[in-house]
Amino acid sequence: MRSTLIGAFLVAAATACQSAPQPAQPGGATALSPPPPTTTGPVSNDGLVARGEYVAAIGGCASCHGADLGGGEQHASGAMGSWRGPNITPDPQLGIGAWNDDQLAAAIRDGVRPDGRELAPLMPYPAYHALTDDDTEALVAYLQSRPAVHRQIDRGHLDMPPVAVPAAREQLTRGAYLATVMHCSACHGKDYAGGMKMQEGGDTVIAPNITSDHDHGIGEWSDRDVERAVRGMVAKNGHVIHKPMADYRDSWSKLSDDDARALAGFVRGIPAVAKPVPTE
Fold first, then answer.
1. How many CB atoms within 10 Å of residue 199?
2. b/e per residue, 217-252, with b = 16+ CB within 10 A?
3. Tens digits of per-residue pLDDT, 63-114?
């Protein structure tokens, strides 16, 4: 379990994913495919579930909902209240077993529960709103295929207003699509220049500047450096990257080579912001 001061994060998560800069990159957004690549033609149910498992990994679902998706793994507390990741397994009483596919898709992309209540954007639906129809279908199939976990989660109360998502879905390059679904801007900011403070285990963590600025960002990094940081949680200088980003280690290590290159190309193309960010 981790305890996180979420005041600044909650505000950023509610808005950051909606208008992040999009550096030019060849190729439009396509549905995420798990490595190995699927064959052409209709996707079998097994193939659909496999692709959904990959989408869930890129989206970091297990980071909040736990490895078995039964909830309770992440605990957030602060001025806006407390929260634990809910049970999103197909248990009909304590999970999402009573939800149909359309209802689950609406919760993921639009932040709306089957009863019409809106989810707090600590559930990063402002980012998941960008998911393609194919990836949403695959993610829903994966979630519905998981073993039911009969676990009651004490959710707590989070005083965080919902946010509106646009009716249309923006057409993104593949790298920008990945960065959006991975909700990078929720911590690093809309301009990716960092500076947001978070509390992790009693220590203050400040989101770094990941723009292409050579003095204050990662302008000296290569594509390989970015790939190693995202998939292996090791910075260019060899330092291990800690939480909160490290919470995604197991998930993002599954990023395919093609997607890692696309994401690195996007990140290295982020316009430079000459913003110094302290390390502590």
1. 19
2. bbeebeeebbbbbbbebeeeeeeebebbbebbbebb
3. 999 999 999 866 666 667 778 889 999 999 999 999 999 999 999 999 999 9
